[in-house]
Amino acid sequence: MVCMRKYKVLIKKMKYKSLKNGVLFVAFFAGFFACKKADYRDVYIGNWIFDVVYTEINTDSIGHYYSENYNYDGEVVYGEADDEVLIKYADNHFVQLTLEPDGELSNFPTHYCSGRFVNTDSLSLFIKTGGLGGGTTLRINGCKK
Known about the structure:
The chain is of the alpha+beta class. It contains 1 helix and 8 strands. The protein has 2 domains: 1-35; 42-144, Porin, CATH 2.40.160.
């Protein structure tokens, strides 16, 4: 009878200990996944003011030239992939680019383009489309609000 009572007490202690370990394991596991990993894109995300110089050269005919300068309140948001940002530099105009941790941008629409985040609150882009002596260029400078 004494052995049976010790056995029941031992079983209760084991159940309590395994329950306690299970709760600690679940709490640790939940805490591990609840922590957000630091994203190097975070410092660039937000509202920006863009100064855009739009230029057309020989798009309609030889000798055609048009240039316009405008300011736009835009934004930089997270892109579709974990290393991309979407830069909305004008109404209905945006470019999605790959952002390196050092601020360098890549995967432009053409190989004539370039750009980078000069620092966390300054952006410089050059986008050119066209060819054979004609096309459009965008010189975009941004300042984070």
